[in-house]
Structure formats: structure tokens, C-alpha cells
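request received
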Amino acid sequence: MTTHQAYIIGDNICTDLIHPPDYFSLDKNRRKKGFLRGVSATWADTIQPGAIIIGGENFGCGSSREVTAQVFHDRGVKIVLARSFARIFYRNMVNLGIPVCRFRGDHPWQHGTEITVDYDAGACQIKTDQASLTYEPPSSFVKHLVACGGLLPAIDILFSHAV
Amino acid sequence: MAQTLIDKILASHLLRQEDDHLLIVYDHLLLHDATGALLIKPFKNLGKPLAHPEKILAAADHFVPPATAERAEILQQYLDFTTELTGIRRKPFQGICHQILVEDGSVGPGQFIIGADSHTIMAGALGSMACGLGSTDILFSMVTGYTWLPRPPVCKLELTGNRAPFIRGKDVALAILTEIGGTRDLADYAFECVDHTNDQLSMDSRFSLACMAAEMGASFFIIIPDAITTNFLAQKGNTTKPLLPDADATYDTTLTIAMPEQSLVSVPPAPWEVEKASDLGHIKINQAFVGSCTGGRLEDIADTAAIVRGQKVAENVRLVVIPASQNIYLQAIRAGYIEDIIMAGGIVDAPSCGPCGGIDKGIIGIGQTMIATSNRNFPGRTGPGDTYLASAPVVAASALTGVITDPRVIN
Ligand code: SF4
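response:
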């Protein structure tokens, strides 16, 4: 299992902070630069692929603009955990095949902690001192979508015909 | 077993269950130019036919008329795209998509409706389940004819008390946000709202309330149909007998909201930060905006006209009024409201989203303040300034004084 660096953010992080509308562009590189820029310009410049984002309540509230989820994919985020997600944002993430899970209570970590994740089992922990966080493991429906790479790739695999 | 309305609608639209998720067939699918334009390339790449073109209603409202050359090009691409989709219902330039949807004769109670915009939830005011979805979801539904969802927990929401003058659906929405907004306890719940108030909310106020359910984080927001609903439906020629919940249905939770006694205002940076209008007289405004899918209906324009009639808008304050649809615009002209507003110094613009999404005419600049009947005041949403949200009576009263004003002071 590989380790991943955790980025910790607060409650009510809206889609305009996750991806400021200024960075809405048809140019992928410009789009990628907007990632979390409303939260921290430094993070926007430095977050590496494989990062884990840990949010609080109501993560992704606001707009249905799917680019706010797409940038997590573009920047290679491993998984996003939050106490709760705004519904449309959660769906957009699942539909794009990006692992998202909910956890309860407080998490034990500081920003920058290196942790390991077992997505299917619903747990992540620090390699060194074993402090762990359990989250609701994904339902098998969501797991299927993530495994297929998202909703559209799943059409021919999971959903055989139109009605 | 006794059923909630949510369970009845889900059962009547169920294709099949997949694990803990339901595959639900929709009755209508709503598109608009801004998010619809994002679908063009992925739809062509997917290369599948539409499952039910007749269920698709395509409006054009965000970039109408376009304020920049780039938006004119995006709008044109969307218009060309929807023209090629044979068999869909196209209604460009008729007004804001959510208003066009509820004005459509075939849209009514007991239906399941999806749309490429978060405020699609507004159609729940007619007794249907309606929700907004992102573009991948919409694309999937366009080609399959259904969508996926977990069964949402259901909250029975009862509105009680007496409705004082100037209290509108917007005030009720802000009262609910005061109760649940900050804690987000009821995020993702589907609401079944029953209006037990004396002097019930009008249909226009109910649309305004249901629209703000998007800001409550609700998954669905149904207003249980009653005489007000059936009158509205009858006027547009829809005689569907509304589906109702069973009287003894059990709910996951319940919430009672008493009518607020005075007008409320949401202060930046979020819709759920709510104060009384009468406590905000120290806030100076540069602009007062009556419009959007939340606050641009005939009731809002009538309220505005009644307050500004025979008066003058405060010096250097812009009163911007944008009717939510061409139909509303015509009614407001015929009723003399538009003339009242223009004579008072107001500016009336063509039906569209206007400054609501921060995309078009009427946005505010750095250091400026607006009071608006729209639905969101997150930082940057309506331009770089500060936006306060309120009912049309508060917005119109504030336009006359130049500071946030409780309308009771004016009349
Ligand atoms: S009026 Fe505002 S909230 Fe409504 S659809 Fe347009 S941009 Fe969205």
C-alpha cells in the first residue's frame, strides 16, 4: 500500500473556493491551476498527484459545475474524505470515478501527515503510529462506478439498455 | 403500508434497484445554454441516441442576450446543438429555464424531473420530485432515460402561523435556513412541505421557497399540493389529479417553521447567515436587484411596483428589474407594473439570469453592495462586491432609501 499526503480543510468549502470561476476554461492546464485556489494559492501550485483531501461538513456546496469535480481527477487526487458532501458535488465525483467517502467525528491528523488508505475496506491510517480513521466504505454500486472509471464508461458494462 | 409522497413518486418511476441505489425513470429533463454547451462534445463522443427526446426541454437563458463575443459563440453552439436534437422541446429566449419548466402545461404533480442546473429543485413546488444534476449525470440520463439515486431520508416540514404583510416565500426560506443552514443537519433530506399558514403562500412565493431548497442542501423539496396548486395547474390547462402522501405516513424526521414576524435578510458570505431587515439600516446599497428564478415572478414585480409607485429611487442607486420569463414580462407590462418601475427611475432588462450567476448585466464591482431577490451570496457569486438576499418588498424599499430597509417603514 502506498502512502499519501493529507490536505486538511474546513467546513462549507464551496465550489467557488474549490475552483474559482476565473479558472473555468477549455484549456486543461489553465483549469488545473484553479484547483483549490480559493482555499490556498500555495496548495494550488504545489499539490502533487496522489494527495488525499480531508474536508469537514458540506464539502462542495454551491454550483453544479462539473469542472469543480473534474479538477480532482486532473490533479490525480487519490481520495476525498469529508464529514458530509453537498449532494451534486458528491455525485459529480462518483460519476467521474473519483473515490469519495464520508467519515464521522473528528479525524486525528495534521495537514501534511503521510497516511495509507484502504478504499474498499473504509479505513486509512498513519503508517508510523497507527492512528486511524474509519469511513463509511463505499456501497457496491458506487464501488462499481469507480471501478469502471465513472458513469459513462459504466453504461455498456453495468447498464445494458435504455428505457 | 402508509407511504410518503417521496416513496409514492419513487415507486411509480422505479426501473429497478441496484444494490442500495434506485434507477429512476424521469418525466422531464431540463437543459440551458451555459451547462448545455458543456454537453456538446461529450454527447458526440458518446455516440448514442437520445432515449426520449420528447422529455427534453431546452431553454436558453444565461447568455441571453450575450454580453461578450465569447458568450455569443457559446450560445450559438448550444442553439445549433439543440436544433440537431430532433424531437426535443426547444424554448430558447422565453425566460429562465426553471420558470419555463413550471409554465409548461405538461409539467405537474407526481412527476420526476431532472435538470442540468441546481435550482431545478424549484419544480417541486408543484408536488413533483425535481433535482439538479451535473453534466455527466445529465448525459447519462439523456441516452438511458433514467438516473440513479439512493432513497433520500424524508423530512415533513410544516409551515404554521399567520402571514404578516410583506412576508413572502423568500422570508420563509430564510427562516428555514436560519434553523438548519448553519448546522447542515438536514443536508440531502427530501422535504415534504405542508402549508398550514393562515393566508397561505401564493404559488409565486412557493416557487421562490422551493428554489432556495438548493441552498438548504435539500435533495428534493415538494410542496404538498392543495387548492393553490390545483388553481395554478388549471390555469395552464393541466388537470392532473395530484398525488398526495398517506395521512399516516411516517417520516424520518419532522420540522415546524412558524411564519417570521418581519422581513428577513441573508447577509454575506452565505445564504444561511440571516438577520432582520430592520436591524440592517446601516448597510448602504449601490444596487437593488429584483429578478432570478427565485425572485423575478409577477408577485415580486407587483410588490416592487406597489412600493416604488409615485416615488423616486434613491440618488445613484440602480434598481434593476429582470422578469423571470417573457410571459411574466408581458403580464407586468399589461398590469402597469413596468411603467411604475420605470417612472420611479428603475431599469428593466430582458428576461434572463442577469447578475444572479455573476455572468451578465447588473453584476457589482469591488466595494459595492447589492440587495437582491436572488438565491446565493457566496463570495464572488454576483461579482466581487457584497450581496444581501431578501424578498422583493425589502429590495424595493431599500431602492427608495439607499440603505437596507424594512418595507413596513415605507408604507
Ligand atoms: S437565475 Fe440564477 S440561480 Fe436561477 S438559473 Fe439563473 S443563474 Fe441559476
